[in-house]
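Annex B. Sample input.
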Amino acid sequence: MTMIAALIFAAALGGLWLLSAKIIGATVRALADPEGKIHARLRAPADPAIRQPMREVETWAEEHEYKDDLMFDFDVMDAGRLLFCRTWKNTRKCTYLVFYSGMGRHFTELVTIYDDNTSVTTTNAAEAHTLPVPPGAFVQSFPGSGLNRIHDLHGEGCRTLERRTGLEPRESAGGTADLVIRALTRQGRYIQSIPGWRWKGLWWMVTRKQRMTGKDVAWQLDQFGVHEPGPAPTDRLQ
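Annex B, continued. Sample output.
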């Protein structure tokens, strides 16, 4: 669930000039311990600016066999700014459709689960690569893309991962809220394991984000040395 992490960071910054080790520390602590910040809700916000784009995603979900799953608010940095999230789930594909709305923006993403450490996320959010993600969490960011385009790119990314690794989509243990908490906690703890992580925020926000945006799963797997399987050996006469 990439946009939760990215928007926590954006809310904490308020502008590049405010970047400091203190802000990075607070952001990563929020990621590493998110449990008390997720608040389930029964109805979507009444704000038309949220409801209109959400209805478009809802219609797409119904047309593509995604069932209504969960709605919740995420308290961004205990600052009284809430990030609204709604999810739909396609159980057969082990894939979630996620709609986010916060700070005047909204985004959508598709997330397919393979195991506790491996997933593919495809999003139209430019902020998706603001913070690093742990190995095995493959994030494709294509800013401005519509849901049909995101769907096609997501399918391509999933097929690439499956072809190169032999992994297959798998149902996640526990509910969606548990999945979100585990993903954020894992990301927060991974960032804390990076030497000098408190001082790398500006580099992540500018250089890393620019480098990673538009890079698909195939490119990311290449960086780990996981390439396309070669042709099967042919039998030779002895």
